[in-house]
């Protein structure tokens, strides 16, 4: 085939993908709007708009036209001639096309209805701590997911197919290894921390902090961390999130609690970390299906890097604590920066994942991972989950939920069928620590940059190494390219050991 | 053809129209977002999203599928069997289909590019008062519009075809009559007002009014006028507007000026009036192409009714002036409600349409109408516009622009090719006065309802008579059904005479 014909076909393929991205951008804006103040009486009609646009995106991703593009460009001769961006675009389309085509449409439609019903049922069941009200839904969801796995196919463990949706290339074998290594160190470290007589004083956090001032401080920190307000905005919402419409419009939301200054503070930095990733994707990728973070784990590594490695560091507060004291004049005047630092790094086993600290968070994730793995290998039945959950919480964290609402029913994920998602959070912590280790070598003045409030070089390093690539590189390629080795949990272990033996004087 | 087949075809036609409405809703949300705070670096990509979705809507409105629906349902036998909503839906689709099909696609595309360039050129020309920089664009736009009129066809005056786009059924013959009658009374009334020794004192308006308090007062007035905040929201913007996404989500924007309390106050009520119309369209019309105000003129009648007939009435301020004084405690304590009322009803010829009062506004519109009519009958060349503009301003208003920026270049409309739009504003004033005349008969306690702040019965009357019908009825049908006669300028004349002879003691 002549070069001219191939190029024309490539242009037309790219225009096709761009159109899908444009529809997705419209959908993302609608979701942002629905979560930040859309009037409630318009929601029903708006949901139908989302449904219509989503249907069109799905139709395009599985159309005969897409099939023809994928068939044509994945012929070896054609694929080899493509530039790297086009090649990766084709392979991503193929992955999605193949996945979607393997599920009969009516089966998928039924699954969408099921998860939508299950989400309502879950909300109700959580509220009432009524496991029995949710169990039948979850059983159907797990059974359907099992069917889907058979249709999609799998290598090794069935759960690998689910993991791959959120963290391409991730496997049970790898997770068992890295989570095992992490748990082996984290559990004893937690024991030593709990036994320490040196517990941080947190009493001063228990007071009212003016919301206007919290907002002003959040905005100031976002500017310092190089969040670009000409390419984003900060709004309020009940469940904070970041959403990337395009790299020039990456919005974050936060929640200001009058009696908890740390919620908005670290929540904003966390979402800001997600946003920095998306704001700094190469303009070469705009309008392609590569214009987003490469995986949930790498994404989470950035939110957690900024929230924890930077935002909960001693250096950061050496620089900004004076500003915080000035902002809340008269409220924390007598609290030293060291006491503040220790208070925001308080470690304590708890029941609720989303409120967990930097160390125990990983244990919450491992519990969910073990249970999900068991569900798909068949060693755990849905009916066994509450008991298995409580046993794991006792084993890993030494706590037992008083009811299922604060236990097995606490997270929304399973009601939406999002199995394989949870590990991303702990992977994010591991990636973050591993990146930090390299970053410290390549920017030897890392600590003093933070202490000076000069965060730009750190953002630039991450842009060069991670952000700009979007989905052009896989998570494995990124971690390998940047750090010279595959994912290694030792960096997180070392980071936690070093930080918390100091915080707790152990 | 069997009833079953016809019904199935009707369902499929309605689903097709609903899909177009859904795309339009997404587009409207994007525009709202771009005008209320979308980050500027994302605008370019977002504009492409709008372009893609708009292209799809246009494609659907002119597709062979649409053509087949229109052909099928406009066969006499079929059309007569349809229920009123379906019939009107078909006729609206046919009107748009026929209009669009008559313009060759490449010609229309070139026109879109031309108006987009012209809008930039206009902005620049207005800023520099540089008529010569804009004239060539306007000449091309007028010439293209002339061509389009030939393709679309026309009855009577060529300009009728343009008028019909904004005010279905409106003609030059009718406008000449109603504008003539209005001008004949308005110009002498203006003369008497200007000659009155009894000019309102406006000095107290020239002070700083806290923006937070302005906002609080605006929100309170919107609630009083029955704007439903569960079906809308108020935001800030540079050029205030109302946008209806669906009847459950009708948003308004306003602008707070620190040194001009009247801008946000009356601007908010004005946009609130537009919004009341859209919020109260019958739910039967949701998802159809009839779910919007029936014409620009009827729409404007509602914004102006609420802004002027209600919001600038003596009764309204008898009810709310105390609240205004309390809101701005210490700032207008010594100003009587009567002095306030007279100040906000100050009449003065001016150069700028959008700043004009209730009386002279109509004269600004008539000037534009005369010029547009001349452009399309061929009696005025584009090159003659500045001189013709200035002569008309001297004749109607007794003022002469010092430069074209404050004269012929002041409005954006012509740069977008929106000829025939301006008359809507003055039609709105006439319709509003005519509706008010009937309303006063049917709600004899109209004045005391306002004085009591009991605006609900007024909104309910308008909902029953006007709002609920959306585009199901034409402007002519509405004014005839509600008032028992066709558009009649005498009601506006009588309203202005009665109100302003009192305000100015003449």
Automatic annotation (TrEMBL), chains A, B:
Cofactor note: Binds 1 zinc ion per subunit.
Keyword annotations from UniProtKB, A to Z: Carboxypeptidase, Hydrolase, Metal-binding, Metalloprotease, Protease, Zinc
Residues given in the record as Zn(2+) binding sites: 270, 274, 300
EC number: 3.4.17.19
Domain of life: Bacteria
Known cofactor(s): Zn(2+)
Active site: 271 (proton donor/acceptor)
GO biological process, one term: proteolysis
A Pfam family assignment: Peptidase_M32
PROSITE patterns (alphabetical): PEPTIDASE_M32 (PS52034)
InterPro entries: Peptidase_M32_Taq
Catalyzed reaction equations: Release of a C-terminal amino acid with broad specificity, except for -Pro
Alphabetized GO MF terms: metallocarboxypeptidase activity; zinc ion binding
Entry function: Broad specificity carboxypetidase that releases amino acids sequentially from the C-terminus, including neutral, aromatic, polar and basic residues.
Family named by the database record: Belongs to the peptidase M32 family.
Protein name (Swiss-Prot/TrEMBL): Metal-dependent carboxypeptidase
């Amino acid at each position: 085939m002549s070069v001219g014909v191939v190029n024309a076909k490539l242009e037309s393929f790219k225009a096709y993908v761009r159109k899908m991205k444009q529809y997705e951008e419209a959908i993302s804006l609608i979701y942002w709007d629905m979560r930040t103040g859309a009037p409630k009486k318009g929601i029903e009609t708006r949901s139908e708009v989302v449904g219509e646009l989503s249907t069109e995106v799905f139709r395009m991703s599985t159309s005969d036209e897409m099939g023809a593009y994928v068939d044509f460009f994945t012929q070896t001769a054609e694929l080899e001639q493509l530039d790297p961006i086009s090649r990766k675009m084709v392979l991503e389309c193929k992955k999605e096309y193949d996945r979607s085509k393997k599920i009969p449409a009516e089966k998928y439609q039924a699954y969408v209805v099921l998860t939508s019903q299950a989400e309502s049922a879950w909300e109700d069941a959580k509220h009432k701590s009524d496991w029995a009200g949710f169990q039948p839904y979850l059983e159907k969801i797990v059974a359907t997911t099992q069917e889907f796995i058979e249709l999609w196919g799998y290598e090794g463990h069935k759960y690998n197919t689910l993991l791959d949706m959120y963290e391409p290339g991730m496997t049970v074998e790898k997770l068992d290894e890295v989570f095992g290594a992490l748990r082996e160190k984290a559990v004893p470290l937690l024991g030593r921390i709990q036994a320490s007589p040196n517990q941080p004083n947190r009493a001063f956090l228990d007071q009212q902090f003016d919301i206007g001032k919290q907002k002003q401080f959040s905005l100031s920190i976002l500017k310092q961390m190089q969040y670009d307000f000409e390419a984003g905005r900060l709004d309020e919402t009940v469940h904070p999130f970041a959403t990337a419409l395009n790299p020039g419009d990456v919005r974050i939301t936060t929640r200001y609690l009058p009696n908890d200054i740390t919620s908005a503070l670290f929540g904003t930095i966390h979402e800001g970390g997600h946003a920095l990733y998306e704001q700094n994707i190469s303009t070469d990728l705009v309008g392609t299906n590569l214009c987003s973070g490469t995986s949930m784990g790498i994404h989470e590594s950035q939110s957690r890097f900024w929230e924890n490695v930077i935002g909960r560091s001693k250096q950061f507060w050496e620089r900004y604590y004076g500003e915080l004291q000035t902002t809340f004049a008269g409220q924390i005047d007598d609290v030293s920066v060291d006491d503040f630092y220790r208070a925001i790094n308080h470690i304590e086993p708890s029941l609720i994942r989303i409120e967990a600290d930097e160390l125990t968070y990983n244990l919450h994730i491992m519990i969910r991972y073990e249970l999900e793995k068991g569900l798909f290998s068949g060693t755990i039945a849905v009916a066994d989950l509450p008991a298995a959950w409580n046993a794991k919480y006792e084993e890993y964290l030494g706590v037992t939920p008083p009811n299922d609402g604060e236990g097995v029913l606490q997270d929304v994920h399973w009601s939406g069928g999002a199995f394989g998602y949870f590990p991303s959070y702990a992977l994010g912590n591991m990636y973050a620590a591993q990146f930090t280790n390299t970053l410290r070598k390549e920017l030897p003045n890392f600590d003093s940059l933070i202490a000076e409030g000069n965060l730009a070089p750190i953002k630039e390093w991450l842009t060069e190494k991670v952000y700009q690539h979007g989905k052009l590189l896989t998570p494995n390629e990124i971690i390998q390219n940047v750090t010279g080795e595959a994912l290694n949990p030792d960096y997180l272990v070392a980071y936690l050991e070093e930080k918390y033996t100091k915080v707790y004087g152990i």
